[in-house]
From TrEMBL:
GO terms for molecular function: adenosylcobinamide-GDP ribazoletransferase activity; cobalamin 5'-phosphate synthase activity. The lineage of its organism: Bacteria, Pseudomonadati, Pseudomonadota, Betaproteobacteria, Nitrosomonadales. It is a multi-pass membrane protein. It catalyses: alpha-ribazole 5'-phosphate + adenosylcob(III)inamide-GDP = adenosylcob(III)alamin 5'-phosphate + GMP + H(+); alpha-ribazole + adenosylcob(III)inamide-GDP = adenosylcob(III)alamin + GMP + H(+). This is Adenosylcobinamide-GDP ribazoletransferase.
């Protein structure tokens, strides 16, 4: 459970037992637990949302979004802002991209991406609760997105040393396939989530085409983009049942 607790510490603000004797290689081992942490995160979000849904769907959406941001500490939102800031300023110049990415200040492209992402999640959560989506679908979305972070880190070259690059150390290449099978089997009842693998492929192709690799910020941005697109797919799947 050492890897699970490290993954929990890295991806959330949830309290965990102390992990002693930490080494850099431990971070790579913890990546195998990212989808499991996503399942736990999704369970907590579903608990918050569906506990309040009976009072008002939009109140449930707001509280779920606040819980989403608080539980993750805004980790992936930070990556989203930094990545889109860099993409907006780089104009396909990789060196310029990395230069802007290392700037601690948030520019206009980052602010726009943050606002749009939070607005999109709020509206989609409101529609999801209004149309009575299953709590199991909400539970699975964070797990799919964190499977993406695991796969992207293994299948794209790192653009610089850092957290994204460390996830590739000693990581088992078969793990994404194992988690893919588990999550796809759990997602079969929800038509919208059948698109989840394609959404992960989309973000990998986007990074490969735009900058030719990944950083920790790009992984975080991918988690946010994937969660938003999967929420949209689930809502549309509910509104337009197959």
């Amino acid at each position: 459970m050492r890897g699970f607790f490290l993954a929990l510490q890295f991806l959330t603000r949830l309290p965990t037992p102390a992990v002693r004797g930490f080494q850099a290689e431990d971070l790579a081992r913890s990546a195998a637990w990212f989808p499991a942490v996503g399942l736990l995160l999704g369970a907590l979000l579903a608990l918050v949302g569906f506990a309040v849904q009976g009072f008002d769907p939009w109140l449930a959406a707001l509280l779920t979004l606040i819980a989403w941001v608080w539980l993750t500490g805004g980790l992936h939102l930070d990556g989203l802002a930094d990545t889109f800031d860099a993409l907006g300023a780089a104009h396909r110049d990789r060196e310029r991209f990395l230069q802007v990415l290392s700037d601690p200040h948030v520019g206009s492209f980052g602010v726009i991406a943050l606002v749009l992402q939070l607005m999109a999640k709020l509206v989609l959560l409101g529609l999801a609760f209004s149309h009575g989506i299953s709590p199991w679908a909400l539970l699975l979305i964070p797990a799919w997105a964190r499977l993406g972070a695991l796969w992207w880190s293994q299948s794209l070259p790192p653009l610089k040393p850092g957290l994204g690059e460390r996830f590739t150390w000693r990581a088992g290449r078969g793990l994404p396939l194992l988690w893919l099978g588990i999550l796809f089997a759990l997602s079969l009842p929800f038509a919208g989530l059948w698109l989840a693998p394609l959404i992960l492929v989309f973000w990998r192709h986007f990074l490969g085409a735009k900058i030719g690799g990944m950083t920790g910020d790009c992984l975080g941005a991918g988690v946010e983009v994937s969660e938003g697109l999967m929420l949209l797919a689930v809502v549309l799947g509910r509104m337009l049942p197959l």
